[in-house]
Amino acid sequence: MVFIRWSGFLIIVICRVTLSNAQISDALYGQMPELFYLDNYDYCMLRGDKALFCTFTFTLAPLGNSSNFLWDIVKNVSANPQNYRHDQLRHGICVPQTCAEDYREYDNIDGLINKCYNRKYRDSGLRGTVSDMLCQNNVSTYTIDVYDIAFGSTLLLYLIFVVFSSFYERLVLNSNKLHLYERTSSKVQTFIAAFSLPKNWYRLRAINTNPDNHKLRAIQGVRFYNLICVIMAHTVMGTLGGPVSNPKYTENTTKQVLSMFLANGWYVVQTFFLISGWLLSYHYFDMIGDSKPIKFFYVFGAIFNRYIRLIPALAVMVGIHSTWLVHAFRGPYWDMFVGKEYRNCRKNGWTNLLFVNNYVDSHHMCLHQTWYLAADMQLFIIFILVLYVTSKFPNRRKIIFGSMLFLGTILPGVLAYINKYDIILREYPEILYDLRILRLDVWNLYSSGYGNIFGYTIGIIFGYLFYKYRNTCLTVKKIHVVLWWILTFGMCITVILIAVIFYDPNFEVTRLKSAIYWASGKNLFALGVAIGLFGFTQKIGWFVRWACEFQPLQVLGRLTYSTYIVHAMFIRWQAGYRRYPISANDTMMLLAVIGDVACSYLAGTVLCLFVEMPISALQKMIGFSSRQKRCTVKKSSEKSLETLDLTNDNPS
Predict the structure, then answer these.
(1) Contact (Cβ atoms closer than 8 angstroms) between residue 68 and residue 127
(2) In whole angstroms, what is the distance from residue 215 CA to residue 539 CA?
(3) How does DSSP assign 374-401, residue by residue?
(4) Ranges assigned E (strand) in 537-647
(5) Rounded to an integer, what distance in angstroms lies between the CA atom of residue 406 and that of residue 171?
(6) Residue by residue, what is the 3-state secondary structure of 206-257?
(7) Which pLDDT does position 348 carry in this prediction?
């Protein structure tokens, strides 16, 4: 009898040692309470006055003072930061169905659910407490107010005007052979034609025959592929940021090498900064040429021109997110994904319109993806001033560019070292679920303007180099081609995949290691992309260059801005509308990405044709009428400061 007792004791000890020193087996993993659970939401809403659906977190603890085997499993799995907190169950229940039919007799719903769940897990030796509870009945908590009506009415009137302009341009102006920028047409006719959908569709698909545009046409393809990567990352975040029926899939995402393309793939945003700097630099030097420096007044004109170009489409999306988006659907997590965005846009939408949303109350940012627009606008302002200085002191151009490169390299490293930031932006399951992309290290090193100086500077330098050598056929040897492949794909892929080492639990993160990676990682990535683009202009790249210069991508690349600001809406819709925990797998993720890309580009095309293109046409109309009086640059360029707009329809 004593032997049996001691044998049982030793078995328990061995099991606990195994739990603390080895990976939990699937058999043990499956014994834990279900991490995510949802009752039938729609069925619950059919209960009329008795409908009550509550989502909450149930934090587990062992029953009594003594530990138990099941709790040890939960505790050890939760201790690994690469796993979910399995001691925090995220459930959604129909209260009258699961806990009490006459729940209205209870004054404290929290207490009712807490008592119900403690009774449920008592036999498992577990207890817990309810927190973060949000309940809803079959009556919407969001009512249509004066802001909804005002925005909806304005948008409806605008759509009617666009339809009228389209018919007027087709039936009247086009029949009289009056075109958008002809001197013979009146200002009123030109204004109306600027909003014509057929005219803007033609402009969207037009091919620019400028020789420089032909060399830079790969930029549109790179824009397209980068936006696909952005949408893919956000789709995965939105999918895994909600309830999943197989949480182990999410927990394994940071344990695989290829998963680093998602977990550490945020470097692709550096490509957008690089392209912005490249086009700004090229347009600027192509405009001024060897003539005298432009007047300082025109610098402010370029900034204002770019602001006017970007703001209308952005304002429309801020308006949609702060009014009618929240009324579209309902769901268990609708308030978490859409309602929160609605409140943030009501509160801080004005910061987006001033492009300061990455600094002002950034923890409650409206349209999270627009941090890039704010950072890019800030860098545009800084570097157009830098270019103005270089045109005043051309002999010191190398010193100025070198100083900006040094600043862009050293600043992220210094900030990482002083503030003891982690070496990477970790995409652990709990971080994804809580949508904690608004961490302090993110804003200081990732989404701030000063944190992306290097990438923009590299774009400025390569844009200048392209301007100088655009009419020169450089000698390209085989060794140059080999180096090109190594410094582009080799270096960029290495920078991304090396993060698998940092995700290893045995890797020791130090302030120095963090500083080195932050100072070099995304900067090397930006440099690699810049070398790649420059190689494309010199006809290097084989099938990759063909894939980037593919003609349909010239149109899709022009839709980048509108598609970028609209794509997150569909991801939030799906996450908020979700009725059940999804079973995540690679195939399902691929289909979700394809669906989000398709919907985003369709909506982006609509936004571009209805808003972005008309504003562009109006700017060109104004620029045409004043170009001869205001432009002081060389005649061969035939460009004005309006080209210093990085949302141009084409790269040149």
Answers:
(1) no
(2) 9
(3) HHHHHHHHHHHHHHHHHHH-GGGHHHHH
(4) none
(5) 58
(6) CCCCCHHHHHCCHHHHHHHHHHHHHHHHHHHHHHHCCCECCHHHHHCCCCCC
(7) 94
128 strand-pairing partners: 60
Q: How confident is the model at residue 623 (pLDDT cuts 50, 70, 90)?
A: low
Report the largest interatomic distance among the alpha carbons of the chain, rounded to a whole angstrom: 108
Packing angle of the helix pair 296-321, 340-353 (nearest 10 deg)? 170
**What's the full length of the chain, in residues?**
652
Task: Determine how β-strand 36-38 pairs with β-strand 53-62.
Answer: unpaired
Sorting pLDDT into bands at 50, 70 and 90, what band is 485? very high
Which residue is it, tokens 């084989």? 542
d(CA 374, CA 376): 5
From CA 604, how far away is CA 565, in angstroms rounded?
8
Q: How many CA atoms lie within 13 A of 504 on its CB side?
A: 10
φ, ψ of residue 242 in degrees (nearest 5):
-110, -170
How many other CB atoms are found less than 10 A from the CB of residue 636? 8
DSSP state of 490: I
pLDDT higher at 380 or 329:
380
Cβ-based neighbours of 408, under 8 Å, separated by 6 or more: 452, 453, 454, 455, 456, 457, 523
Instruction: Give pLDDT, residue 476.
Output: 82
Give CA–CA dist 631/625, Å, rounded: 11
Alpha carbons 308 and 59: distance in angstroms, whole number: 50
In which residue are the tokens 């304002």 written?
Answer: 315
Backbone angles phi, psi at 540, to 5 degrees: -100, 150
Of the pLDDT bands very low, low, confident and very high (cuts 50, 70, 90), residue 647 is: very low
CB 51 within 8 A of CB 138: yes
Segment 334-359 mean pLDDT = 93
Separation CA 77–CA 71 (nearest Å): 10
Count the Cβ atoms, other than its own, within 10 Å of residue 4.
8
How, if at all, do strands 53-62 and 126-136 pair?
Answer: antiparallel
Residue 239's contacts (CB-CB under 8 Å, 6 or more residues apart) are: 574, 575, 582, 584, 589, 592
Burial of 458 (0-12, 13-18, 19+ CB in 10 A): buried
For 90-137, write each residue's pLDDT tens digit.
Answer: 999 999 988 877 776 677 888 889 999 999 999 888 999 999 999 998
Residue showing tokens 């989000």:
596
On the 0-12 / 13-18 / 19+ scale of CB atoms within 10 A, 133 is middle
Place of tokens 């070292």: 417
- Show contacts of 187-193: CB within 8 Å, 24+ apart: 187/621, 190/621, 191/618, 191/621, 192/165, 192/168, 193/165, 193/168, 193/169, 193/617
For the chain, the 3-state helix, strand and coil shares in percent, each to the nearest 5, are 65, 5, 30
Compute the distance between CA of residue 419 and CA of residue 565 in angstroms, rounded to an integer. Answer: 32
DSSP state of 290: T
**d(C-alpha 178, C-alpha 199), whole Å:** 12
Output phi, psi for 93, to 5 deg.
-130, 155
- Could you identify the residue written with the tokens 């005002």? 150
- pLDDT tens sequence across 166-189: 998 888 776 555 454 454 467 888
Place of tokens 């043990």: 28
End-to-end CA distance of the chain: 88
Check if the beta carbon of residue 531 is closer than 8 Å to that of residue 452. no
